[in-house]
Amino acid sequence: MQTLLFTLVLFLILNLGVGMWRVLRGPTTADRMLAAQLLGTTAVAILLLLAEATGSAALRDVALVLALLATVTAVAFVRRTLPYSENANDDE
Amino acid sequence: METLISWAIDVALALLVVSLAWRALASTDLFKAIVLFIAFGLVLTLVWVRLNATDVALAEAAIGAGVTGALLLAAYAKLRATSPDAIVDRAGGISGIGAISLLILILLVAAALGYAVWTLPSDYTGLGKEVAANLDQSGVSNPVTAVLLNFRGYDTLLEIMVLLLALLGAWSLGITIPRPEAAPGLVLDTLSRLLVPLLILVAAYLLWVGAHAPGGAFQAGAVLAAAGVLMLLSGRELPAALATWPLRLALVLGPATFLMLAVITLILEGRVLKLSPEWAGRLILIIETTATISIGVTLTALFMGAPPGEEDR
What we know:
The complex is a heterodimer of chains A (92) and B (313). Chain A is mainly α.
């Protein structure tokens, strides 16, 4: 069981790498921000798996905080940054 | 097999955190750098978890990945609105001599750090044992909280002061964050109605749990600030009646309580922030509660920029 959980954690960490590629690739600001949100969700999943694998309940608190605050970042992007980035041409 | 996978997890995380940091620093596109910084905060949280520093992971999740991300995004919007050139010009490199002297400086710092690590005694086990031995005197059972609020309370006192100074700096610059937003849609309005009470509840939980498990004032304050930021983003303004002295009172409540306690303990006990064991638990709870409120309000006020009521100056 432990081995399975740790394997899944490793798989999700590799997914973080793929998400990072999407952040770098873009091309629009919304693409990058959504990739960051994907990273946030993946990190929550990793934390929950690690909490189960290591039996450390406090990791669930970290996952909870991460999940709650990712929402705030997303809202800040939509409400503040997005109105200014429609005419932004991302230089790749 | 399991140790092999554990090892692979740590190597993958280490590679990821370094490459994210490098990409964030090297990016010429400011927005990309901000998103990479948020991603860096997320991965760093996982790194702290792997290092068994859950308290730090919690702080990184709340402050590094959450509140700082929102602050940077708002700052980016402000830059875009007022000085678009500042964003484009970031690619301008440093000249030859500048680059070489910078390289020398970095190498010197690296050498000094390397020397400091090299000369550390190899059989030194840290202060963990002494903290564990004195834990029952501290009033709490979480060793991190014991160190932060009791054994080295003055560090935390200064940290809270730094936060207040940062806000005073922002206020004296007279920064106004543009508010281009239309009225919030139904989704955002519903989200903030559901999420703000939940955030306040989680902040209270983190504050309380800090006495015996990872948690505490900074983490709780950051979550509280997230509630404030969400309210601002969904178009709720601070009522004018609260924007005058009640706001200022909330800002100084934590630092002032902490400072008063420092003075009182100096007079009664003869040493700054020497908490007597039978009172320590209650005093720590009072400090942490007032600090949580002040940290939450300070971070929210930083997001607002200018002091409320003076935005049009």
